[in-house]
Specification:
Blueprint lengths: L2 E2 L2 E4 L2 E4 L6 E4 L6 E5 L4 H19 L3 H16 L2 H11 L4 H24 L5 E3 L2 E7 L2 E5 L7 H13 L2 E5 L5 H14 L6 E3 L4 H9 L6 E5 L2 H12 L4 E5 L5 E4 L5 H13 L11 E5 L3 H13 L19 H16 L3 E4 L16 E4 L6 H4 L6 E7 L2 H9 L3 E2 L2 E4 L3 H10 L6 E2 L13 E2 L2 E2 L4 H6 L2 E7 L1
Parallel strand pairs: 1-5, 8-9, 8-11, 9-10, 11-12, 13-14, 13-19, 14-17, 16-17, 19-20
Antiparallel strand pairs: 2-3, 4-5, 6-7, 7-23, 12-22, 15-16, 18-21
Helix pairs in contact: 1-7, 2-4, 2-6, 3-4, 3-6, 4-5, 9-10
The structure holds nicotinamide-adenine-dinucleotide.
Length: 472
């Protein structure tokens, strides 16, 4: 069924977009067009920013309890759309329905709930000597988001921005905009004050650049590739606007010699292949102590065999396609280059069978990867795991840190103190020890070229605040 969306959401209502060729949205499993959305212009961005600016003073002055009540109503309206959202993500992105429900829909609802609480109970002002230190909303936020977690990436910006008292203009990814429309249906139903949140769809070079470079946007909050993050930072620099950036990753899963190898490899492979590897935090480098290396490769090959590719709506499917033909081709090129650079194929690879229709890549494990090679250095954003042998803890830390990225990572050891010592030495924004669960209240963000700033929890709220010192 085609979903034809013709409007932007501006100043609290749906507004028909002026002419222009709409953007087609594809289903990556069937390769068919499943919908269209309008391609916005710089003038549309002007209107959206003007609405957000006009709403700012009133929203910033709203009582925290009222802001929390608005977010609570949004949470209810979004929860009522759980099934629709999961189906839309499965259709426009290809995530298997179970993961689309549990992760792609469940996680943003959890995050939104956490900001209902934080909006109601914001961090108290601090007293520093004779100063009262208060936090105030930064102003109008321009939010630009990617396609890989199409609802979560938006909610991780919109919820803390609104909780802090900011107003916002969103430009979602042109590859997965239909999920964003469902969120704005919920926003409309929840009755947020006009102008507090606004939606303009379109391409990065037109709508994204107009938003990032807009003189009346105080903070650009971006999630996406490092190349685009760099461009956005340049655009914002002209007016010294603030930017927060959640960018790429090439995270290391460090498996020490005393680890529970079966768990470490099984969870590690699952993490690398989640969402067909289109996950910025994916542990795409597995670093294994030499004494356990061959055993780990056997386990990784067996685990990979269990990943059945197919239709996201088939309950037996564990991996869907990649989001686009271009992404599929990029990932295939990376695999070919990794093998040409001396990597040894352990599972999957260029000749492994994939469904005839759809933009699929077989889950692939490549061993003996040189830590300086492209396969170990580039973010691939597909189901490709590079395995690298290491000699001891020091060597593991050196290899793990041999990256321009630093977003996530893992350490496995039978000795938790040893794992903690290694975790502390990793130059990365998050480390999970022995498969510890994701914490949606913990700060999320990157070292080095993985980004600037933090999302989620109280740290995520603070990204949307200015700090004021009042002396008395
Ligand atoms: P992308 O950078 O191509 O696009 C992200 C968004 O930026 C899209 O909305 C796009 O339209 C827009 N955009 C593109 N060019 C622009 C420009 N010149 N000016 C302004 N906006 C522009 O990234 P993508 O392909 O959508 O997403 C994949 C990348 O995102 C991967 O590299 C991945 O690691 C990264 N990512 C990071 C995180 C994180 O939290 N760190 C999360 C998800 C994805």
């Amino acid at each position: 069924m085609e979903s034809v969306r013709t409007d932007f959401y501006l100043d609290g209502r749906w507004v028909r977009a002026a002419g222009g060729e709409p953007l087609a949205v594809h289903n990556p499993t069937t390769e068919e067009v499943i919908g269209t959305v309008p391609a916005g212009t710089a003038e549309d961005v002007d209107r959206a920013v003007a609405a957000a600016r006009a709403a700012f003073e009133g929203w910033a002055a709203t009582d925290p309890a009222d802001r929390a009540a608005h977010l609570d109503r949004l949470h209810a309206a979004l929860t009522a759309r759980t099934k629709d959202i999961a189906h839309t993500v499965a259709s426009e992105l290809g995530t298997p329905l179970k993961v689309a429900t549990r992760v792609q829909t469940g996680l943003p609802l959890t995050v939104l709930r956490s900001y209902v609480d934080l909006a109601a109970h914001p961090p108290a002002p601090q007293t520093v000597g004779n100063s009262l230190v208060v936090r105030e909303p930064v102003g109008v936020v321009g939010a630009i988001t990617p396609w890989n977690y199409p609802l979560h990436q938006i909610v991780a910006k919109l919820a803390p921005a609104l909780a802090a008292g900011c107003t916002l203009v969103l430009k979602p990814s042109e590859l997965t905009p239909l999920t964003a429309y469902l969120l704005f249906d919920a926003i409309d139903e929840a009755g947020l004050p006009p102008g507090v949140v606004n939606l303009v769809t379109g391409t990065g070079p037109v709508v994204g650049e107009a938003l990032a470079g807009h003189p009346d946007v105080d903070l650009v909050s971006f999630t996406g590739s490092t190349a685009t993050g760099r461009r956005i930072t340049h655009l914002a620099a002209d007016r010294i606007a603030r930017v927060s950036l959640e960018l790429g990753g090439k995270s290391a899963n460090v498996i020490l010699d005393d680890a529970d190898l079966a768990s470490a490899v099984k969870v590690g492979v699952g993490n690398a292949f989640l969402n067909s590897g289109q996950t910025c935090t994916a542990w795409t480098r597995m670093l294994v102590h030499r004494d356990r290396y061959d055993e780990a490769l056997d386990l990784a090959a067996k685990a990979t065999d269990g990943y059945r590719l197919g239709d996201p709506f088939d309950p037996a499917t564990r991996l869907g396609p990649l989001v686009s033909a271009a992404q599929r081709d990029r990932v295939r090129d990376h695999i070919a280059r990794g093998l040409a650079d001396g990597g040894r194929l352990v599972a999957g690879g260029p000749d492994a069978p994939v469904p005839q229709q759809g933009w699929f890549v077989a889950p692939t494990v490549i061993a003996d990867v040189d830590s300086d090679s492209a396969l170990a250095q580039e973010e691939i954003f597909g189901p490709v795991l590079a395995v690298i042998p290491v000699d001891d803890d020091d060597h593991a830390v050196r290899v793990a840190n041999n990256s321009r990225y630093g977003l996530a990572g893992a350490v496995w050891s039978g000795d938790e103190e040893r794992a903690l010592r290694v975790a502390r030495r990793l130059r990365t924004g998050a480390v999970d020890i022995n498969g510890a669960p994701f914490n949606p209240l913990a700060p999320f963000g990157g070292y080095k070229q993985s980004g600037l700033g933090r999302e989620l929890g109280v740290h995520g709220l603070e990204e949307f605040c200015e700090v004021k010192a009042i002396q008395r």
